[in-house]
Design a protein that fits this description.
Chain B: Keywords: Membrane, Transmembrane, Transmembrane helix. Chain B: It comes from Halohasta litorea. The complex is a heterodimer of chains A (676) and B (508). Helix content of chain A is 70%, strand content 3%. In chain A, strand 1 and strand 2 form a beta hairpin. Chain A is globular. In chain A, helix 15 packs antiparallel against helix 21. Chain A has 29 helices and two strands. The N terminus of chain B is likely disordered. Chain B has a two-stranded antiparallel sheet. By secondary structure, chain B is mainly alpha-helical. Classes of the chains: A mainly alpha (676), B mainly alpha (508).
Amino acid sequence: MVTAFDYVPAIVLLPFVSFVVALFLGKYLPKKGAYGGIAATAGSLLLSIWVLLAVRSGSAHQETYWTWAEGVGAQPFTLEFGALIDPLSALMLVIVTLIATLVHVFSLGYMNDEGERDLPRYYAGLGLFTASMLGFVIADNLLMAFMFFELVGLCSFLLIGFHFRQEGPPSAAKKAFLVTRFGDYFFLVGVVAVFATFGTAAFSGAESFPALAESAINGTTEGINTFGFEPTTWFTIVGLLVLGGVIGKSAQFPLHTWLPDAMEGPTPVSALIHAATMVAAGVYLVARMYGFYVLTPTTMGIIALVGGFTALFAATMGIVKEELKQVLAYSTISQYGYMMLALGSGGYVAAVFHLTTHAFFKALLFLGAGSVIIAMHHNENMWDMGGLKNKMPVTYWTFLAGSLALAGIFPFAGFWSKDEILYEALIHAGSEPLLFAGYAMGLLAVPVTAFYTFRMVFLTFHGNARSEIARNPEPVRWNVKGPLSVLGVLAAVTGVINMVPVQKVLGLEGIDYLHRWLDNEWGGIEGLSSHHYAEIGPYSSTYPFGTEVATVLAGAAISLALALVGLGLAWKLYNVAEPVEHTAKLGGAKELLYNNYYQDEFQVWLANRTRGVSGNADTFDQGVVDGVVNGVSSVSLVSGDRIKRIQTGVVGNYALLLTLSLTALLVAFAILGGWF
Amino acid sequence: MSLLQIEPTNWIYAMWSLQPVVILAVTALLVLGIDSLSPDSRSNRLLAGTATAGTLVALGVTVWYLAAGTGAAGSGGPISLFSDAIVVDGMGLFFIAIFTSVAALVVVASVDYLEDDDNPAAFYSLLLFATTAMSLMAVSNSLATVFISLEMASLPSYALVAYLKTNRGSVEAGLKYFLIGAVSAAVFAFGISLVYAATGSLLLPEVAAAIGDVTDLAGILGVGILMVAGGFLFKTASVPFHFWAPEAYEGAPAPVSAFLSSASKAAGFAVAFRVFAVAFTPALDVAINWGLLFGILAVVTMILGNFAAATQTNVKRMLAYSSIGHAGYALIGLAAITAGASAANATVMGAAMAHLFVYGFMNTGAFLFIAMVEYWGVGRTFEDYAGLGRKAPMASIAMAVFMFSLAGLPVFGGFFSKYFLFLGAINAGFWWLAAVGAVTSALSLYYYSRVVKALWFEEPNGNLDALDSKPTGLYAAVIAAGVITILLLPGFGPVIETAEAAAAAIFA
């Protein structure tokens, strides 16, 4: 019988076909490949929904499609491509394909209607990216995940640098590529370490590496090579190596510096790649191998602290930015910090929940920003905007929905997911006091987030128009408004998939759909459930406000109140007819924030310090390696010339040389063989 | 048992087993017959058609036999004929497939070349007789048949090199080839007589059986083996019997160069592989370590061929030296043989056979491209080739394929054959042969890419204006060789499997 799972490869291949078609035939097609891209991603979306429904009806699926290398002898590794469809990947498939479809539609307005050139290249890039991202999502082993992880990085590079004739984009593309590559080196070493340790890189099953690691911690170390370390110590090292790739890709401190520069790419690309999907790859990877991470408390603590710190740190930089997309970029870094905090605090479901809601509302905000950018003729400075509220109502209302979700205002999607993250950190802090630090930073970031979000909204849409363009903005068409409306609705209502606080307070059983979904209540794969992770994880729950209900209510009240404080401050300062800059009030902190804590400068300084080492390497390469190569080639040519001269053209010489050589050989072998 | 004692019915059986050889011989006679019946008519295309059909049918029958497992261990083993003087097995058929493929390509390419020739029948029949003799070399199982078939292949080759009677270069090259050939044949015949003196037999398996008892005649046997090796080194154009090759290849008509450097070289290896693997393997411990002999010669041949090729200015002469270098690679198949290690021996010799197979197409194609350029009268040096890519793009693409494949870049058939060859050498414990092979391959990329650079990246210098004719036969042959060279990358699996199975049967 044909099931949804038979079509899993098609989910990945459809966008790939659109990539090939756009690349080779794009210039002959109407809209330069856009329709093909929309059709392909929409097809993938329908198939993904079918897969989601199949998982909903109680099945899960793991299948190996192609074993492309088989080891021999003592190290019989098999390297495979396969698919792992469980509740987590099914959900992620729907998110990625949905956003990709909407972004393709939006691109009609942002790229085609604006008369951009080289559109086939653009749609080919989007197609390849979508295919690679979907391949990453369905990956059933770490090596396959790594390969697609690198492919999405390549597509990100290509699309950030789409306007390669200008000065900024190529430089930003290189920076993004190099910084994420730095993290990926650690990831690659981690992949090799996983193979060397467990002999497999599979995510699921009794012979998967999380399962083997679990039994190793419980004392069964047979067939596992920990290189002389205690299993826990070694798994911490391996986990941190893989985490290197995660920190680079999900733009966590200290490898976050590429993401703000990546805003040089076209805005739909920012929405798809640098907000909703590729940046989520890091978080998704941690969730995918969560069964491995929860075994080592140290790694969990580091993840939580990095996440909490990034959430606060990036949010503070967002409050002084003048360009619309820059604010959103720092906000993205900050929100992924929240997800990492959730994962490190044992909040697996909370992290996936925030990943979902964030994908919708951040894609919405980026597309809204794209709409504003079209209207403003590509001027992104918020101080030149103002008063756009009445000129572009659809953009305004949807953008507002996204902003309320981002700021965490009840009852928008972001409120529920952010609240659950903070709640998980709070109740687990009893068993691991370090989490209090993460919780505190996450909590402090809440008012900052609300402040920069609404500063952005007020400066862009409220008050009086501050420039000629803002008084007469260019209208946008259905292909911009359509995706905005879909995402606006989702940003408002996605919270219903997981209303845990309502359940706990009112005692309504069964409305925490996402919890039940990820707990394999309908279908799933043994060992990959939130329940299992909680059992083997290091944390237990304590309730600092007495009962569970009181803690839920208090936590929600605190974060909502702080969000409202931030919103109120922004209202007071910027929701006026003629807003002025207030950054001077920050005093010395202003310069620090304007310069992003001098992170870029620090990295450049660090790079310059390593110049001595790289200089020596360069000298070695130029002098020794090239010297040897050049030496060999000139020796070859000179001796080739000599050899050429043996060939005199006189046949008598040839006969002589031939006979002499034969005689020499005869004498040599006669002595060697002892014939005399 | 003498030849005449064979049962009459066995003749039919023998003819049936040797069908590819018989078809080639009959085709050659047919070509002569057509020419004698109508000596005055200009029948170039009819003759070429007959010759092509004959070689293709022979190739088809050979492939059919190979696929059906004729002479293979699984279907009754090698077929011995004429008192064991001839043996039909997988190895012989594999090499016959190479010869007939090359011959077919060369015949097709020669049609345009001989358009204005007075007597094309002579050319085609010489070519077909040479191919017949090479096929016999591949199935020879006695030193007597080896010698006769080798000379039978050489004599038409001398005539072919000197075919352009009025061209001084061609005639001079033919004469030099003949003289060096005469010296080599003398050495070879003397070597055979010494081997016979020591072992008392000319049949290869009987020689092998007798080697254990030679005792004090070991020295005689050693000298004999070394001199027999000399005969093969001449045929394969290996150092120090290579002197004829650059001049013969350069002076001969380019299709003949293609034929000699691909088919004739492969024939030399076919017979050398069989004689040394079957007859002389026991002698490794007794008389002479011929593995070491071939090892030294392989290294010298690889280095000399590639280094000399790097400094040439004439493209055809560069290819001639590159062809010497490739003889060095194929010699690894003999050099890496050690007594008692049948599996490793079979692997490396099979890899050398597969390399000769791929080489048959890429090298023939390259020389046929030269033939096309000669046909246009463009010139012979790298400078003269500048900008050809714009005038003749399809052929130039094919030439780029041949060059990169000869260098062993991992995009064409030549990559796998070299890779398996070097890997086989390393697995047999001869890492130094593989190292020299890899280094010289890297050097070869230099001079092969010079051709590609000239074709595609340099500006034409005005000598290409007359280039308007389209030699159909040459084009067809070059493109066919190019397509097969590309297809041999994905299709290398069956080739190497057939070759290794054939080699394993020899060592079993």
